[in-house]
Structure formats: C-alpha cells, structure tokens
Specification:
By secondary structure, the protein is an alpha/beta fold. It is built from 13 helices and 14 strands. Helix 4 runs parallel beside helix 5 and helix 10 packs parallel to helix 13. The model has no long low-confidence stretch (mean pLDDT about 95). It binds pyridoxal-5'-phosphate.
C-alpha cells in the first residue's frame, strides 16, 4: 500500500456536501470580494487562534508582506529571521527593500536561536521574525525579552503552526502580529491560496485592512500605498467549513506523531533530540516536543546522521512507496538571490547548513491510518537493519 506524504482528498472528500453548500451560498449571494463570508471567517478564525483581530489575506506570503508594510519596514532597515525556514519569510523582508539578516537555529527545535539573533543586532535592526517551524512554537519568552530590550517589532510566521501553543497561549498572539497561511499543505489547508494576519491592536488591524485593499480609505482616497492582498469570499466560505474540523485534524496529527515517537524510539540507533544519549552512535534523531509547547505537527521531521545517510533513507522509503520530503535542502543565507547582500547580513549558520543535509519529513497528515504508520515504521526499521 503506497503511503503518500499528504492526501488532501482524504480530508476534503468527506466534506463534499458541506463544501458544496458553502459554494452554493456564495454563488447565490453574488458577493465575491470582501463582505459577510470574509468577515465571518475572520471572526471565527481569530477566535480559534485567540486573537482580538484577524485580517484575511491572499496568501501567507502576502500576510507577511502586509505586516511589514504596516510597520513601515523598508530600505535601510534590517530584519532578523532564521536561515532555516521556507523562502517566503525572508523573501517578503527583501521585497520591502529591507535586508533580511539570517540567524542560525537550534538543532533540537529547528527554530531561531536567540543567541545568534543577538550577535547580529545593529542600530538598523527593526524587527525579528520568529518562525514556528514544522508546527512548534519558537522560544517566545526569550524572543519577547530580547525584542523588548532592543525595541524590536515581533512578527510571528505562523504559516505552519495554526493551533500551536506556547505556555497555553496560541501562536500568532505572542508578538505584535501573527501571519498564517491556508496553502493546501498547511494544517488548515484551503482550496487554493489564502492567508491571515492576527493582532490585538485595533489600529494595526485597520491598517492591515487598508493595506490589503490598495491603502484605500475612504473609497478612492489613498493616504498610503497598499496592494490587492484580499482573500476571496469563496475561499473564506470553504475554509469556514474546514475550520470547524481543525481541532480534530490537529488531534490526528498529534496521535500520529506520538505513535511514531513511541515506536521509532525503541529501534536501535534512534534517539530523541537533545536527550543526552551518546550522539556518536545515533543514526536517527527524532523531533522533540519542548517544555510548555503544544506541537501541531505540520511536519514530522527526522535528522538522519552521517554523510549520505539522509539521501539513502529517502531513496529506501521512496522505493517502498512511502512519500517523504526534504524541508529544506538549502539554507536561506546560501540562496543565490541573497548573494548580493552586504557581508554583514550573511553570517555563517552552521546548524542550518548541517540540517539541510540531515532532515527528512515523514507522512503525518491526520487521515494517515494505523496500517500506513505500520508500513512507515517497518520500512525505517528495515533500513536501519540493512546496514
Ligand atoms: C507556507 C509558508 C509561507 C507562505 O505561505 P503561502 O500561503 O504559501 O504564501 C510562509 N512561511 C512559512 C514558514 C511557510 O511554511
């Protein structure tokens, strides 16, 4: 039985009648841009995250860009972000004209290392973008203290972590703004592109609403330059259906991850990240849930130790019909498009660099069945025994 990395149909097809009803409602309303469905989705999604205000956007990327625009970040400014994340985090910083300054990450959580960020601080640093990578919150206590001390804005990249918590508080409510994505592979996956920005500040929310609509206020008057970052009413109506199931989807991911952790940790050569066991004999390092973290497992990401070993395991799993993927094969400070950045913005990020050669993400989507998990575990056990 093949085990795909992700199966969107397994999640969406059972909702066909509810989704069709939502489509019909929008069709009959004739209202496709902003309006009631958009407002209802924003209210419902903001409440689920625990934010006072939620402003939908055309994608997670545009959510980040709109957040930076509202803060007035631009040429001459520097913004701290991790070197190990999806491109959009840094791409949006660069698109404002500001300089992304790449920080290294923790090998245990894959999230930004505040010590590395502190070492890169200059008089031009305006903001820090912690990414809650793979479904787990960054070290927000340390980040908030660092940001407060140096008067930095905090924009959370929550694209992979809707529903994740840090000390029981929702990701996206821990900084000045939280940027979410509804790309189909995210934990709340839509039917195309979509995004959202959360904030507890009513004035910021109003600026976000104007920015996503050409900076227009009132109609045909523009005190600031915005763009078209609006999310479709249809997309909002469809996501209102899926939002009602987000808790169940998260519970499914958590149960799958627990099963993997429980059974994989019993195999020889497998250790848990940071558990202090002899690193020299470890061949696979399992992801770890930090203290006080509510992990929502957008990805279940292993580290495969030893030169060429990650690719060998990837080939073995692929040959067994098991979907797996490398998130991410190149660290951002090594991307060609950032080569022109001045030397001060490009520091070595040794952990990020080694992670790009070690990481491998396994299927963990909520609809994964027990027999499918058995196959994944059996294939990994077989690979470990082979060598
Ligand atoms: C997916 C993702 C984004 C961008 O979201 P889109 O909706 O695809 O534009 C930004 N940051 C991270 C960390 C992501 O995983």
């Amino acid at each position: 039985m093949p085990v795909p990395l992700l199966d969107v149909n397994a999640q969406n097809h059972p909702l066909e009648s509810e989704l069709t009803a939502a489509f019909t409602r929008v069709l009959r309303s004739g209202r496709f841009i902003l309006g009631e469905e958009v407002e209802a989705f924003e209210a419902e999604c903001g409440a689920s995250i625990g934010a006072a205000h939620a402003v939908s956007m055309s994608s997670g990327t545009d959510a980040l860009l709109a957040a930076f625009m509202v803060l007035g970040i631009g040429p001459g400014d520097e913004v701290l972000c991790p070197a190990f994340t999806f491109f959009a985090t840094a791409g949006c910083i660069a698109r404002t004209g500001a300089t992304p300054v790449f920080c290294d990450v923790s090998p245990e959580s894959f999230n930004i290392d505040v010590g590395s960020a502190a070492a890169r601080l200059t008089a031009r640093t305006k903001a820090i973008v912690p990414v809650h990578l793979f479904g787990q919150a960054a070290e927000m206590d340390e980040i908030a203290a660092f940001a407060a001390q140096h008067n930095l804005q905090v924009i959370e990249d929550v694209a992979q972590s809707i529903g994740a918590t840090h000390r029981s508080r929702g990701c996206g409510t821990l900084g000045g703004m939280g940027c979410f994505s509804f790309f189909p592979s995210k934990n709340l996956g839509g039917f195309g592109d979509g995004g959202l920005v959360t904030t507890d500040d009513a004035d910021v929310a109003e600026m976000l609403r104007r920015t996503r609509n050409h900076g227009m206020h009132p109609r045909y008057f523009h005190a600031t330059v915005g763009a078209n970052f609006r999310m479709d009413a249809l997309q909002c109506a469809l996501l209102r259906v899926k939002l009602r199931h987000l808790g169940a989807y998260t519970a499914g991911r958590v149960a799958n991850a627990r099963d993997y952790l429980d059974r994989l940790s019993k195999l020889p050569g497998v250790v848990l990240a940071g558990d202090g066991k002899d690193g020299r004999t470890a061949r696979l390092v399992l992801p770890q849930v930090g203290a006080q973290m509510g992990h929502v497992w957008n990805q279940f990401t292993l580290r495969v130790i030893g030169s060429g070993q990650r690719d060998a395991l990837k080939n073995h799993l692929s040959a067994c019909g098991i979907g797996c993927e490398i998130y991410y094969p190149v660290a951002l400070h090594q991307q060609e498009c950032f080569r022109h950045l001045q030397a001060h913005a490009i520091h070595a990020c040794p952990v990020s660099e080694s992670l790009t050669g070690e990481v491998l993400s396994l299927p963990v989507y909520p609809e994964l069945t027990a027999p499918q998990r058995d196959e994944v575990i059996a294939a990994i056990a077989e690979w470990l025994a082979l060598r």
